[in-house]
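Input/output pair, single chain:
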Amino acid sequence: MKKIIYALLFVFIITDIYAQDIIHEYQNLQKYWYYRFRLKNDFMLVGDCQGCSMPANTRNKGLQNNLYWSDGGASDLGWYIGILATEYKLLSDAGEPTDTTVMELYYALEAFNRID
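Output:
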């Protein structure tokens, strides 16, 4: 039994295991921006109005295209703020423009102040 455990440990130590493929880095980036686009356009309205910049939990794609929020709105908003903060850091490190991200982060913090 010890030989099997040692063999498995040896195999895991000498192999290179990556969580995300370097070859598919561009595909991962495209996937992120696609889901980011869907979040902004399908599950929320960015702005300073009542209910704006609050991510919705579900969406009804019927004739009226309604959004629905649950009681966990503050935690969903916290995740959204965390995503925006990470996006700001990555964009600024890459030398990309961060104006839109800063604007969305401002509106998300204002939404948090509204529900507080």
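The two ends are 57 Å apart (CA to CA). Residues 13 and 112 are 45 Å apart (CA to CA).
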